[in-house]
Specification:
The chain is of the alpha/beta class and 262 residues long. It is built from nine helices and 13 strands. The protein binds ligand 48F.
Length: 262
């Protein structure tokens, strides 16, 4: 076979733009491809929902690749280990209830589950704003404003593109970036005790893990918050390299949104 470079280029351009065009009206748009976002993408896509996941970096996986302090293992507690087992991993019990797993394997398997289930993953794409509408006096997020990450990093003055969604999930982790933009630009009140972003507190893994799941909910009409962003939004602790809360949060947000979409 003689390789024609033009066909390679045409194939990539055609496949990519078909994917993007087919993502202009999503059931669910996920902002951030860390463990919570990937788990939510997997669990929603396997039920047949049209899901897009937007990740600023070249690689999805967020803070999971590096384990603890680059020592590339993560810990998962009893309650969450079934999620990684379902994804095909075998975990090793270190002490009763504490399981270790290779962080590269865990991240790769979540990315594989999400994409193979049909999630449209857009890496190298940053969410810089949301689409807001007011219906019957109630403001609601109904889309994302996205731009190429290299444009953002180079601070080029290039306008973004826009897509619509029925629900967005804020999974940007510690920085809770999408909610910060929503509040800063629009002065709206969130469904938090103060109406704003409560902020993340220092290390308390036990409370933080439970709260990551408890705080996974609709934080503003049309926007759910999951993963570490849920703790930053509602004011709870950090937990370090134990990842069960992130996985359980992704499962919970997928379940709640699926129920609403049905
Ligand atoms: O931080 P991250 O892994 O979020 P998570 O799913 O998991 C948290 C844990 O990794 C860890 C922890 C638990 O032990 O404390 O930190 O809550 O992934 C967040 C992803 O969002 C991307 C960012 O690059 C990262 O991969 N991100 C952040 N802001 C944007 C974004 C944005 N504006 N647009 C697109 N992606």
């Amino acid at each position: 076979m003689i390789i024609d470079e033009r066909i390679v280029s045409e194939a990539i351009a055609t496949a990519y733009f078909e994917k993007f065009r087919d993502s202009l009206d999503l059931d669910v748009a996920i902002v951030g491809g860390g463990p919570s976002g990937l788990t939510a993408a997997w669990k929603l896509s396997e039920q047949g929902f049209k899901v897009g996941l937007f990740e600023r970096k070249l690689s999805v996986g967020g803070g999971m690749w590096g384990g603890g302090m680059t020592w590339n293992f993560i810990v998962v507690q009893e309650e969450a280990k079934g999620i990684l087992e379902e994804a095909g991993l075998t975990l090793k019990e270190f002490r009763p209830g504490y399981f270790t797993v290779d962080s590269v394997a865990a991240t790769a398997v979540l990315a594989a589950k999400a994409t193979l289930a049909g999630a449209r993953v857009f890496n190298c794409m940053s969410v810089e704003d949301v689409v807001l509408r007011e219906v019957d006096g109630v403001k609601r997020v109904m889309g994302l404003v996205v731009n190429s990450s290299p444009v953002e990093i180079a601070r080029l003055h290039v306008d973004p593109l826009v897509l619509h969604c029925k629900y967005a999930i804020e999974c940007t982790g510690h920085d809770v970036e999408m909610l910060k933009t929503l509040v800063r630009k629009n002065g709206v009140r969130l469904n938090t005790p103060s109406g704003g972003i409560e902020g993340e507190q220092s290390m308390w893994a036990d409370v933080a893990e439970a709260n990551t799941v408890n705080h996974t909910r609709e934080v503003f009409p049309g926007v759910y918050v999951a993963g570490m962003a849920a703790n930053a939004a509602y004011g709870s602790y950090r937990m370090g390299p134990i990842f069960g809360g992130m996985l359980l949060s992704g499962v919970k947000v997928a379940k709640e949104i699926a129920a609403r979409l049905r």
